[in-house]
Amino acid sequence: MYSSVLSDDGQQVSFTRAAGKATRFHAIWLRDNAHDAETRSSRNGQRLISLNDIPVDLKISSVQIDNSDALITFEPEGKTVSYNLPWLMENAYDIHGKNSTAGTPRGIETWDSSLAGSLPIADFTNVHSEPQALRNWLEKIARLGFGLLENGPVEDLALMKVVDLFGYVRETNYGRHFEVRTEVNASNLAYTGLGLQAHTDNPYRNPVPTIQVLYCLESSAAGGENMVVDGFRVAEQLRSENEDWFNVLSSYPAQFEYSGESGVCLTASHPMIELDTCGALQAIHFNNRSAAAFTDIPFDKMQTYYAAYRRMGELVDDPAMGVSFRLSPGECFIVDNTRVLHARKAYSGTGKRWLQGCYADKDGLHSTLACLKRSAGAAVPDTPIEQAG
Ligand code: FE2
User: Fold this and answer.
1) How many domains does the chain have?
2) pTM of the predicted structure, to 2 decimals
3) Ligand 1 centroid, distance to 349 Cα (angstroms)
4) Domain check: are 56 and 151 in the same one?
5) How far is the CA of 233 from the centre of ligand 1 (A)?
6) pLDDT tens for each residue of 316-368
7) Residues whose beta carbons lie less than 5 angstroms from ion ligand 1
8) Eight-class DSSP state of 52
9) pLDDT confidence band for 100 (50 / 70 / 90)
10) Which range marks the domain in which residue 247 is found?
11) Distance CA 370, CA 36 (A)
């Protein structure tokens, strides 16, 4: 059973359940988050009013508790709105520390090479036919930042069937997809099949593509394993070794550029370790091939910056940090390109390797995952949404 107390001349109300702690809400927050039919569309949940429609001298005149609902009357509108108390508690913001989540974001789990025994792998057919299997796989990708699929078709553009599972292709100057073909011959090993340091793709874009899919169609060359490294674990490790190094890489942007083809001059700046406004890890941007001249780092920080950048690279290259796997035809992997770095090891023999890659975005992946979690029996609106926004 809840109780309520009005305070601050009706500007605030607090709710307490049994002997629990009081949780405060502001009148303006409550009014803005009313779910009545005049405030929110019952069809698509979108807000029908703007803040300017709410009187500036808003206050709460009364609160009535009715089991798990609170009936709140706002003045000067004279409007009474019902709030579900468990919903309010779920969305409460009066929680110490809630807004200072510096460190690793909630809901993710960082990893190193010890993950090798439990790779987030799923069966291509299962994730296409069983919502639960898809949900399990997407949950692992959301938590770990990458995932693999096996037993898929060996056919041109099969990677599009992977993207169809959760979202949409991000088309770029490389097209809707790109070919990664390598032919290794014994007389020319030095020039083909070279290894690539682990990196995130396309830091010269803003926004960067947030998902990459790489799908294997042919793999007869020895070597050429793929490796993934958790950039968030690298950042955590760097911070534990030297806070100044972490700070310099997260405080100043690096420049990246790509102009390797006619008509393309892409440039963007991102800190190599990007934090959100609360100080939590948000993204990693690391790519030695497309790093440009760094010009936004103060003179007296540049030496420290390069020491930090060097150490970050050492951690990225450390075999203890990453996990490797070899893709066979019909297998693919997907990475969160804002967190997990990917690499290709060098080849050691002859043969061919053919992968197809594409970009997509993780907002679609998170949306699909949220819908799968919600879907057990939930109705889907049968009316079209008139307007995207
Ligand atoms: Fe790449």
Assistant:
1) 2
2) 0.89
3) 22
4) no
5) 19
6) 999 999 999 999 999 999 999 999 999 988 777 678 889 999 999 999 999 99
7) 201
8) G
9) low
10) 113-375
11) 24
